Predict the structure.
Amino acid sequence: MRAAPRVRRAGPADVTRLVVLFRRVREENVPAIPAIVHPPETVEPLIGRVVRESTVWLAEAAVEPVAFLAVGDHGEVDHLDVLGDHTGSGLGATLLDLAKEAHPDGLALGTLAANAGARQFYARHGFVEVGGTAGDNDEGEPEVRMVWAPEAPDLGVRMEEG
């Protein structure tokens, strides 16, 4: 039995490791999602910007990065990437729970419409589909917009049908 991954905040020193993780996760998921469209030399600056502009949590098993989640200041989930052999382990849910704690007023994200696994995962964790695009993203693929909002308190008020 392997030890549970350790989760910590990522910083600028982790960018190269996050790039490797990002590329591995994306490569593992082709053809379910399109291959990375960014030239290799542009991925590090892209992930570097994500680390500078977002809160990023990194999960490591031993010393190997196995997952990360990035959330912008306004609750936009920019990345949730988990290596295949850690998918289904609860690690994605753990990272998402950290994001919910940090943004109790709600979260939003876009995921590729073709990524049925991601859409199901987010739906299981309380996200609802609220729209989408025809493909105005880097991949040129249709995208689904999903949001999570905390449950409204039950104030005991009931609407009567009339």
About this structure: The CA atoms of residues 127 and 148 lie 4 Å apart. The longest strand covers residues 64-72.
